[in-house]
């Protein structure tokens, strides 16, 4: 698995627990059903994936196809999967 794939999968997988956290905060009333606050929470965790990728996964810009890929690669997958799982978890909790 090359560095691009590792980064993409890492961000995709991180989106799932972030979606669960968004669901918990929405259900508990902490965010009072505010989608914008949940989006900022997801964006905060996305920004945290950058230093984790550099320091823990040891992915450097030199290993990627473009230097900016470290910041942007997987952004669409992250936010789409976060939104999908947030809606899924919220719906499952509401019907139980």
Structure characterization notes:
The protein is mostly helical and 96 residues long. The chain has one domain (3-95). Helices cover 74% and strands 0% of the residues. The mean pLDDT is 94.
- The overall pLDDT, averaged over residues, is 94
Radius of gyration: 15 Å
The topology string of helices and strands comes to: HHHH
Sheet with the most strands?
none
What structural class is derived from the secondary structure elements? Answer: mainly alpha
Distance between the termini: 39 Å
Coarse morphology? elongated
Tell me the strand percentage band: under 5%
Count the DSSP helices: 4
Number-wise, the strands total 0
Q: How many distinct folded domains? A: 1
| Uncertain parts | none
> Percent of residues in helical segments?
over 70%
């Amino acid at each position: 698995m090359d560095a691009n794939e590792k980064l993409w999968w890492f961000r995709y997988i991180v989106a799932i627990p972030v979606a669960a956290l968004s669901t918990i905060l929405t259900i508990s009333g902490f965010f009072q059903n505010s989608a914008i606050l949940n989006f900022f929470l997801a964006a905060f965790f996305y920004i945290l994936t950058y230093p984790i990728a550099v320091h823990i996964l040891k992915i450097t810009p030199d290993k990627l196809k473009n230097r900016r890929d470290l910041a942007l690669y997987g952004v669409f997958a992250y936010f789409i999967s976060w939104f999908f799982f947030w809606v899924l978890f919220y719906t499952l909790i509401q019907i139980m």
